[in-house]
Here is the input.
Amino acid sequence: MIDLNELNRYRDCAWELEAVGVIGDSKGGCFKIPYERLRRPFEASQLRVMASSGGGWDHISVSLADRCPTWDELEYVRRLFAKSSETWMQLHVPEREHVNFHPHCLHLWRPLHKEIPKPPSNMVGPK
Here is the structure.
């Protein structure tokens, strides 16, 4: 993940204090990212992002108030927060392990000390 201080123009310190009790830093924080394709009133046209690095993982969550983010919205955030050389993933865990803290939130994950295995590109589609 990039140094999150590079995104301080989007940082929401009040939300950070409310959500985690401290102002974020280079490895974590809360952000409101404008996304022009939403075409809504200003507050609703922002993707709410929480990012962190710790416990062996980089993590990015993306949410909206009234629906889950689309693939394009999630990818837009990933491109802002992740280095271009990094592979990130969504996880679909067994139902018994599912945690739903916010009904319209999706998560991206990256292990810090392991490479994420990827399928052969021909299994995804032709080049």
